[in-house]
Amino acid sequence: MRVIMSGNLPHDKESMYWLRVKAIPSAPREKNTLQIAVATSIKLIYRPEALKDINVEKESEKLTWRVSGNKLEITNPTPCFINFNEIIVAGKKLQNVSYSAPGVTTKFALPAGVNGGNLQFSVISDYGAVSSLHSTSV
After folding, report:
1. How large is the average pLDDT for residues 92-96?
2. Is residue 56 within a helix (H) or strand (E), and if so which, with residue range?
């Protein structure tokens, strides 16, 4: 597969697209066989040349965190997508955390009974490695 950029993308921040690929077996159907179709979704992130030396883990330290009702609000002032591995508030792990887009405030649901306290999070690097836990409070 070849991915080719066509059109203009922002030069001051990353852009993200979802690449969805479905592989369907081409073998003829036979008795007593199992054929599996595989569907994969991959985040495809374009980083402009001006941001080539950016370090996502260091940029994640610029995030601001706030509790609003039963939601955790994360404001991302950086030019890059911050992909979370996990977020833990007051010792309870948040479910279904994903990413925070550049210049956007993202909201995740807090576990029942949690309304702030010590916050720990880890992010995923450009190479798929998980960072060490960062700590702050909300």
Report:
1. 94
2. helix 56-59
Residue that wins the pLDDT comparison between 35 and 40: 40
Q: What 3-state class would DSSP assign to 19?
A: strand
Task: Give the length of the chain.
Answer: 138
Answer whether 74's CB lies under 8 Å from 100's CB: yes
The position carrying tokens 């495809």 is 44
Distance CA(61)–CA(78), nearest Å, equals: 10
Span 15-39, pLDDT tens digits: 999 999 998 887 777 777 788 889 9
Q: Which of 75, 93, 80, 62 is nearest to 124 (CA)?
A: 80
How many other β-carbons are positioned within 10 Å of the β-carbon of residue 69?
10
Quick one: which of 21, 16, 15 has its CA closest to 2?
Answer: 21
